[in-house]
Amino acid sequence: MCPATSFADVNPPDQRSACQQFHSRCFKASSRSLGAMSSDNSDGNLSVPLRNVLNSIQCIRDRVRDGESNESQGTFNLSNFWDTLNQAVKAVSQEATKLSLAFSRPPLPSVQDGEKLSESILKGVLTLSTVYYWLPKSQGVTLRRQVRDATVEVLEGVIQLLEVILSSPRQSLTQEQLTSTGGVWSACDRFVQLPQDNKAALLVVLTAQIGVVKDAIEEINQAVSEAQDPFSDVLDDDQDEDNPRGNRDTYWSERDRRVIDPCHGLMKAAAACLRKLASAVRANGDVGAPQSVAQLDDLADVSVEISPGVDDLALCLYPPMDYSGVENNVCKLAALLNKFLGMIRSSHVCGESELTWVQFLDGAVSHNLQKAKDLTAQDS
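Structure for Cyclin-D1-binding protein 1 homolog isoform X1, as requested:
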């Protein structure tokens, strides 16, 4: 049974109608393409239905990637949404498998069977995209973004599979076809790992940001501790004895190393902000009220700016150190962290116990900012 038959409990009638209109519009356009095949396929060319479906799914992919949801005016059942979405994903996986198998061994499907296979994969894709569109922004922009990305990944996997089938020799299972079929399965399997609400979606974002910031800090730590010359492993050490490498642009001066200390402290404060926020979200995060959901989205939007800020600061610390550039990046990161801590302080995830570390980190940011500015402003 098509998953679309179980959609009734997911959304109120007005949103179901809007999504059904999208489904109908795409399906009619695709049906016109498929309907034109009877005369084109008189020579038994199986490529025609596949190419038409490929074009249709590319269009659907673009709509999903760039489109907006229709905001729900009634009660939205998130649990039913996930049940229905998982059914739709499973159906796409099954249809992709059928399509791949049909073109992996002789005999090739007849033109009629090829059209049926094409129609089936198209219906599965349309169903999946329609269910995705039913997830309103009120459930969280961060959540919706991650569901959208996962949906687009499935559609791109199907597109790749169709392209491989069209370009590969008929009646032979190529490695490319095996890989692309596995790609669809992998993209579909990802759905069971998706966050189920906006709180979980924010934690996914924070975990990724924590990892990136941690890597940047470790790279600076390693560069500082390993050698006087941070580029010794990438530059040519084969120098004449009478002309040893004397390019001081590859070395940190004593002043450079003093400047690095508060910058390193600021980067560590950034990492602590992300870690502490993740703990606060786990303990206090709420998705029951629209204002709370919106606050989680705001925190996610600012948190994704932190790792680029840390990376920019880390990069400008390598010799030759430009003190004005260091100060500029220090000020930018400190301003971002102050904004971030202010948002945390005013959000529902910040209780009395969280307020203690918010105040501590606020002081740490200010201290390292001032120390870095003092050191970069000194006369050489």
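The chain has two domains: 3-193, 199-228+250-377.
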